[in-house]
Write a structure and sequence with these properties.
Blueprint (H helix, E strand, L loop, with lengths): L1 E5 L3 H10 L15 E5 L10 E10 L2 H7 L15 E2 L4 E8 L11 E4 L5 H4 L5 H4 L33 E5 L3 E3 L6 H4 L2 H13 L7 E5 L3 H12 L5 E6 L2 H10 L3 E4 L4 H9 L2 E3 L7 E3 L2 E6 L4 H9 L1 E9 L11 H5 L3 E4 L5 E4 L2 E4 H10 L9 E5 L4 H9 L1 H4 L3 E5 L5
Parallel strand pairs: 9-10, 9-14, 10-11, 14-15, 15-16, 19-20
Antiparallel strand pairs: 1-2, 1-4, 3-5, 3-7, 3-20, 5-6, 6-8, 12-13, 17-18
Helix pairs in contact: 6-7, 6-12, 7-8
Length: about 400
């Protein structure tokens, strides 16, 4: 089968890192980049506790594009095993079951929780997994399957940028009839936002600011509305079509990143704009809770500037190496919390898998994200898919997925 794999090669890494600034398509060049369309065998079941899944849709995540553009910090490299098939967002049907897998059947529609934590690795639970924080598992490099934060970064599991992947029985969730495949492939990214909101809820009756209107930023809006939080939602967006989607999902105010956006946001918050002796305006006042969903220097600095004293900032945008002015953190006693992926969360009096909560909300009709899929491509058109993503404005891109032949 064909699979899009990341094969680390220092000479290709260096060449595309340097020249890719001027020629972005070098990052997916078939011979000059670390990305390769490879002919490989279907991944075998690691043991009888695993299942093989025939992928219907494999999502292209912002983190996947960070990988292709080589923006990831080297600090994440120990938590991957090379070469790996990319793709951690997946919906599909079960093609093969291990003998120890119960409660599922061949051909059943499922989504995948890609986190590779203690249970999937066949290990005794670490402290993080014991308390339900599988995304913070201590043993990301241990067990039979080797290093990998998740499916899509582990050599032995495969990924959704290929027709087949394998997952541990604890990682698969059945899809009810009420949830179609288009929503199914978005359960994973929606769960990232859902986890962030459930762990860091907005102040009731307060003001929440969402910075960024890509898949995660828009999902934060959807999560806030689906969970019936009573708060005013303002979102900072770059493109008109993103603003339209933000309003559709329930944002109260949409502010576009133009020359006057700080003034507009300050007016919404009824905040005071102060001029320092030089540099950017200082904002006195702001949102109670800010969800930062972009991950660059500008967005993080804006989050710090636009949070009121005593407020909270949640970092979801995979920020890495950048220059940040941290003055407002101590000056305004801000609380900053990172949020990675999902795990388990309190919901209606019990603790449940975040992905299970996402499925439940979709089943109840509280959220429908299917219209966020703006482009679908077969795997062999990957160059067109990536080119489309890099021309987000002209192509009106929100979410791009790979579509596979689903016959099992």
């Amino acid at each position: 089968m064909n699979a899009l794999q990341f094969k680390f090669d220092i000479s290709k890494y260096t060449a595309s890192k340097i020249l890719g600034r001027w020629f972005p398509s070098l990052h997916w060049h078939p011979t000059l980049s670390c990305l390769s369309m490879s002919q490989i065998k279907e991944p075998p079941l690691p043991n009888e506790d695993w299942v093989k899944i025939k992928v219907r849709f494999g999502g292209i995540c912002g983190s996947d594009m960070n990988l292709l553009f080589l923006h990831d910090s080297p600090a994440t490299s120990p938590f991957a095993s090379f070469p790996f098939t990319i793709g951690h967002e997946a919906v599909g049907q079960i093609a093969e079951l291990g003998n120890n897998v119960e409660g599922f059947s061949k051909g059943q529609r499922v989504v995948v929780n890609p986190l590779l934590s203690c249970e999937s690795r066949g290990l005794e639970y670490c402290p993080a997994c014991q308390r339900g924080d599988e995304s913070l598992c201590h043993y990301k490099t241990k067990g039979d399957i080797g290093p990998g934060l998740l499916i899509g970064a582990c050599k032995k599991t495969g990924g959704s940028w290929s027709p087949y992947l394998v997952a541990h029985k604890s990682q698969i969730l059945a899809l009810p009839e009420e949830v179609n495949d288009s929503n199914g492939v978005l359960i994973e990214p929606f769960s990232c936002a859902l986890h962030a909101v459930l762990r860091n809820p907005p102040k009731q009756g307060g003001h929440a600011l969402v910075i960024g209107a890509g898949m995660i930023g828009l999902s934060i809006i959807a999560a806030l509305k689906a969970l019936d939080y009573c708060c005013i939602i303002t979102v900072l967006v770059k493109h008109t079509f993103q603003g339209e989607m933000a309003k559709k999902l329930g944002a109260d105010y949409v502010v576009y990143l133009n020359d006057s956006y700080i003034k507009q946001v300050a007016e919404i918050f009824k905040a005071e704009r102060l001029r320092p002796i030089f540099g950017q305006e200082v904002i006195q006042g702001g949102a109670d809770t800010v969800y930062e969903c972009v991950g660059n220097s500008k967005s993080v600095n804006d989050a710090l500037r636009l949070t009121q004293s005593g407020g909270s900032i949640v970092l979801l945008g995979l920020a890495s190496m950048m220059k940040i002015d941290w003055t407002t953190v101590w000056l305004n006693e801000l609380s900053i919390k990172g949020c990675f992926a999902y795990s388990s969360n309190e919901f209606e009096g019990s603790r449940r898998s975040t992905l299970d909560i996402a499925i439940e909300l979709m089943k109840r009709g509280k959220v429908d994200l299917s219209s966020m899929i703006t482009h679908r491509y077969p795997l062999h058109e990957y160059k067109t898919a990536f080119s489309t993503i890099t021309n987000k404005s002209s192509k009106r891109v929100i979410k791009v997925v790979f579509e596979h032949d689903i016959r099992v």
